[in-house]
Structures are given as structure tokens and as C-alpha cells.
Design goal:
Radius of gyration: 20 Å
Strand content: under 5%
Shape: globular
Structural class: mainly alpha
Strand order of the largest sheet: 1-2
Number of strands: 2
Helix content: 55-70%
Number of helices: 20
């Protein structure tokens, strides 16, 4: 890929602000979506505790991403709540919050020890260019159920929402192609603003914001006793296996997309992810992981500099102390978030083709099967009906019901 700015380049001040805003506007909805689910699992009867949960999650996500960019893998990658850990949370919430927090910290400690022991280098050898290209495809396709839910949630007028999402996507594609380079890189921002306003006007849904309290230091650490639940702990260990694959896939694919040796970034990235998850357990929130959506943003913006993500990470952590901003971002319609996510996933597929094209230069049936089989397996698992997922053994569900993990394995 030909990028306008490399990892160590400094864009102009104006471009830095625009690129950072794009990163922030992709990061914040992901934190809110995962945070809402996690907060509802742990505190289903308390709106105040759910808001506090979101605030702590914003702080941890911003601090975790900043640490990764400066001390960890050093690559422009989003760090945020890990969706796969929600399954582990469901195994113990809301009855045993302490056990969930302990299991989260234990999983993070296992990741850190994996790096310090040197065992990680054997796992990293599995990620060849062909594998990393397939991983990018899997990410795009296995996220489709999430996109589908976002596009059909919000109002009873489902067909109207789908038409709105299609029109918004068409406008984004037209803007990406027809606008000048600088403006085309801000398509996500304008789509978010104009799309949110248009959605509320068309579907006549007013914006209601409730009063929120600021985050204080005394609220950060929850008061809980050390409780170890073997069932919850085992469920979380399976979840962290999936999280490790996701972390390595994100770092490896981004590193190879940017023509960087992935060995050193992988070790540092996994180690800091482990430390971040230990802190998540202490704070009482869901653990974090490096998001695999990042290559799609890099391709869409043509900017691989670390500077805009660093600015965005600082802004994300700062939002934790401005709860009114959290409430405002949370008011973004799900259909708009789903459309933006779909646009980023399309860019993700473009990035995967750039990695797979050398492999496909001399096509063979085996090559096509190696690429097609994991993608099809991942898609089938991603769209399994709820009854089939529920029928799986609870300890194996975090792995067998995750299309990304099944396809990658």
C-alpha cells in the first residue's frame, strides 16, 4: 500500500486534527457498544453504575491505546473492549461480579507470562502472509452479523432504516471518489454528523440527554473480595485464547500491511494487552484487545502515522471525565454506526487483497481452497442461529461460536 504518511511521519496540524477525529469517532462507538453490553450484564438494575462503568471503560481504553502506541507495538491500531470477553462475563454475571473481575485479571496475567516465558514466538510463526490476508477477510465477513443488528435496531421502521443506510453508504462512496484528497479522508466524520442529524429528522426521534455525574478517583476501584469461581475462570481462559488470536492477528496484519517486521511489535503488544487486562480486572470492567478494524481505517485515510491515533487516545481517555460527551456520543443512531462499520469493513477487504495478491499471482486449486475454506467456515459460524450456539458446551462456546477464531484456527 502507498501511504501519504509513514508510521513516524508528522502530518500537518490541520490533517492531524482531522485524522485524529476520524480515529476517535471510530473508537468511541465501539467502546460505547461493548460498554453498554458489559454494563448491562454486570449492573442490570442500576443506570448510575452502568454510566460509571462506561466512564471507567473510556479511561482504560484511552490509556491502553496510548500505552500501546508509545511503549507497546507502536503501530496505528485501535485498542478497545474485547467482544469475545462478553461471553465469559455472561458466565458469571450478575451473580458473581468478583469472580468475573478476578478471571479478567487472571487472563491478562496469562498473556503477560506467555510473552515473558518466550512461548509467544512459537505462536507468531503461524501467521504467514497468506494467513494474515485471510484473517483480514475473516474480520470483515464475521463482523456482518453485528452490522446487521445495528442496521435493524432503533425504530420499528426497519425497511426505512435499511434504505437510509444504503443512501448514506452511497453518499460515502461518492464522496470518497469525487472529493479532493484531504476532504475524502474525512468522509467518515461528515457521514457521522450529517447521517445522525438526517436520521433524527427523517424518523422524528428527538434527542434526550439526562444529567450525568463526573468521574472521581474514589470511584475507579470497585470494592470486592477475592472470589475464584472455577467455571468462570475456565470460561475466561477459553475467551483469552480467542483474544490472543485476535491480538496477534491485528498486530501481524497491520505490521505486514505497513511493511514492518511483526516479531517485536507482536511481543510488546501482547504483553501490554495482558497488563491492560489485569488493570481491567482491578477496575471491574471488560478487558481490552487491539482491534482488527485498524487496517481498514489506514487504507481509507492513506495515513499510517502514529500521531493522529495518539491524539485520539488522549481524547478518548479525557472523555471519561466529561460524561455529557459520553451521553452525546451514545445518542448516535445504531443505523449510522452500522453503516460506518460496513464502510470500514469494505476497506478491510481491500487491504486483504493487497496482502493476498502475491499469493494469488500463480493460482492453484489448493491456494483457493486454503483461502476459501476458513472464510466460509467463519461466515457459517458467525451466522449460526442462537439455538445452535446455546446447544454448544458452555466452556467451548467462546471458541466454537466465534467465527473469527474458527476460521483462523
Amino acid at each position: 500500500m502507498n501511504f501519504r504518511y509513514g508510521i513516524s511521519d508528522w502530518p500537518s496540524r490541520q490533517e492531524t486534527v482531522l485524522f485524529a477525529l476520524q480515529w476517535l469517532l471510530v473508537m468511541a462507538p465501539m467502546v460505547i457498544i461493548m460498554g453498554r453490553i458489559g454494563a448491562a450484564l454486570q449492573y442490570p438494575d442500576s443506570q448510575a453504575l452502568q454510566q460509571l462503568y462506561l466512564q471507567k471503560l473510556f479511561l482504560l481504553s484511552g490509556a491502553g491505546m496510548l500505552a500501546q502506541l508509545v511503549f507497546g507495538h507502536g503501530l496505528p491500531i485501535i485498542t478497545g473492549p474485547a467482544a469475545v470477553l462478553l461471553i465469559g462475563m455472561a458466565a458469571g454475571s450478575p451473580g458473581s461480579l468478583e469472580a468475573v473481575h478476578v478471571a479478567t485479571a487472571a487472563g491478562g496475567l496469562v498473556l503477560t507470562l506467555l510473552v515473558w516465558s518466550g512461548a509467544l514466538r512459537f505462536v507468531s510463526k503461524l501467521f504467514t502472509p497468506r494467513v494474515t490476508g485471510v484473517v483480514l477477510l475473516l474480520i470483515a465477513f464475521t463482523f456482518l452479523p453485528t452490522v446487521s443488528k445495528l442496521l435493524t435496531t432503533g425504530t420499528p421502521q426497519v425497511f426505512g432504516q435499511l434504505l437510509f443506510a444504503g443512501a448514506l453508504l452511497a453518499a460515502m462512496l461518492a464522496g470518497q471518489r469525487m472529493l479532493p484528497r484531504l476532504l475524502s479522508s474525512t468522509v467518515i466524520i461528515w457521514a457521522l454528523i450529517i447521517g445522525s442529524v438526517s436520521w433524527r429528522m427523517l424518523f422524528r426521534e428527538p434527542l434526550h440527554l439526562t444529567k450525568a455525574e463526573p468521574l472521581t478517583g474514589a470511584q475507579l476501584l470497585p470494592s470486592f473480595t477475592l472470589i475464584i469461581d472455577p467455571a468462570v475462570l475456565i470460561a475466561f481462559l477459553f475467551c483469552y485464547l480467542a483474544l490472543l488470536i485476535n491480538e496477534l492477528g491485528s498486530v501481524q496484519t497491520t505490521a505486514k500491511l505497513l511493511n514492518v517486521d511483526p516479531a517485536k511489535p507482536s511481543g510488546r503488544g501482547v504483553a501490554l494487552t495482558g497488563i491492560s487486562n489485569v488493570l481491567a480486572g482491578l477496575l471491574g470492567v471488560i478487558g481490552s484487545v487491539s482491534y482488527s478494524l485498524s487496517p481498514g481505517i489506514l487504507v481509507a485515510t492513506r495515513c499510517a502515522s502514529r500521531v493522529p491515533p495518539i491524539v485520539a487516545a488522549i481524547a478518548l481517555g479525557t472523555i471519561a471525565f466529561v460524561p455529557d460527551v459520553i451521553l452525546l456520543i451514545a445518542a448516535i443512531p445504531p443505523a449510522v454506526i452500522g453503516t460506518l462499520l460496513f464502510y470500514v469493513l469494505c476497506s478491510q477487504i481491500s487491504a486483504s487483497f493487497s496482502l493476498l495478491s502475491p499469493t494469488m499471482a500463480v493460482y492453484t486449486f489448493d491456494t483457493g481452497l486454503i483461502i476459501g475454506l476458513p472464510v466460509m467456515l467463519g461466515v457459517v459460524v458467525a451466522f449460526l442461529p442462537e439455538e445452535a450456539v446455546t446447544a454448544m458446551p458452555s466452556l467451548l462456546r467462546p471458541v466454537l461460536a466465534n467465527g473469527f477464531v474458527v476460521g483462523t484456527a
